[in-house]
Design goal:
The protein is mostly helical and 492 residues long. It has two domains: 441 residues; 50 residues, no CATH class. 93% of the residues lie in helices and 0% in strands. It has nine helices and no strands. Helix 1 runs antiparallel to helix 2, helix 2 packs parallel to helix 6 and helix 4 runs antiparallel to helix 7. About 3% of the residues have low confidence.
Amino acid sequence: MESLSKQELISTITKQADQIKRYEGRLRDVVAAYKGLAKEKEALEISLKALNRTENNEDGSKDSIAALTLSLSTLSAEKARMEEAFQTDKKVTRDKYENMLASTREETKTLVQQHLAEVGNLKAKIAYEIQERERERADHAAMLKELHMKLNSERKTKEKLEDKVVHNTEAQDESQISETDNEKLADSEYLQTLIDKIHILKKELIAENDKLGNPIELSAVFKLDGYENIHSKCRLELENLKIEFETYKLQNAKVKESGQEVESEMEDLKSEMAVLKEKTETYILLLEDEKQDKLDSLRLHEEKLKSEKEYHKEVVSDLKTRIQSLEKQVQTQRDRYATLLEETDNYIRSRNDRSRKVSTEEGNWKDGHGVLNDGTAPPHMLHYAHELARKDLDITQLRREKHTLEGQFRDCQREATIEKERFKEVIRTLKEEIDRLRRIQSREGANLEYLKNVVMAYLMSSDYAGRKHMLNAIAAVLHFTDNERKIVFNTL
């Protein structure tokens, strides 16, 4: 507040100093005019005294003529001084107004050029922004196409892996089952063949034993150690078959475990595909939002540019109208000056004719024909005083008009300054809008969303391959260096 009050005081002091200077100039003009009027009054009084004398001698006539000549020379000198002052004021005023008009035209031309340059810069920036948006749209389209291709390739790879795993599992199961069934069938057929042979041999043995005269006790024969050895071999072979069957079961379990690993890898691929799909949808939404924002901002810039063009046209037309008005006023003043000069010249010529007439009539004064005609001289003096008063009124009116024009010129300068500040504010607003659009272009939100999904998948994954795959995705998003990748993978 203190600094503001100091500035206000300084501006007030400056304004008062300017007013004092103007008042001093006006006072000097008034003093000079008063002195001139005093001299004219004194000359007129001398003339009236000389005309009112009633002496008829030659010396009185000579004194009257001398007094009239002196007063006429005084009036002529005062008139010449006033005319010179008037010409000087006219020249100064004309030069000042011509300079004011020239400066106004230059400022108007400069403002128009600045506004046109600003409009051109805005057009160039808008065209550049449109090109950038088109390029980003093309990049996004290429990115989406690449993501679709990657998604299709991942889908095909997944389908191939699934088919391969299913075929391998089915083939291994079928081969193991067929091998086991074949072995069991072969063993069962072999055992059945042996049993059949044993029964046949037993029947033959019984038949041959019956044919003998002294039959043998066959029950003792059937209980021989060799037969028991045969059964032990069969049991041993059965145990071997059981062990081999368990081995096949273990192999089948290993195959199933490998199938589960493949399934877990497939689940990881599915989760990655889901993340890629979500990221693709996010990019599509971001692309649509950004496209709509760019269209809205472009429409807004076009409307602003249109309004600025219309306002610029109005300002230019207003300035042209003011310039034409000032030119008309200056032309009017010139016409009035020319008329006044013509009237003054006519008056001076008439006064010179009258003075010559007075000099020719000097001999008549010597011959005793009387003094100057009392009915003609005083009206001419009154007419001269009237013309002087009218000239003073014209000068006063011209000074008033001069001050009015100066005020109008200051108003024009102030309005031009206000318009310049307004255009600066508009340019600053447009720059802020462009910065906001550039900030909108950043994909930090999409990257954070993708990083969140990848981190969630990493935390939810339990196997080594899935966590490693998620770490690769995180490192790609966060731009890990090779050393950072090695450190992270070593601690995994």
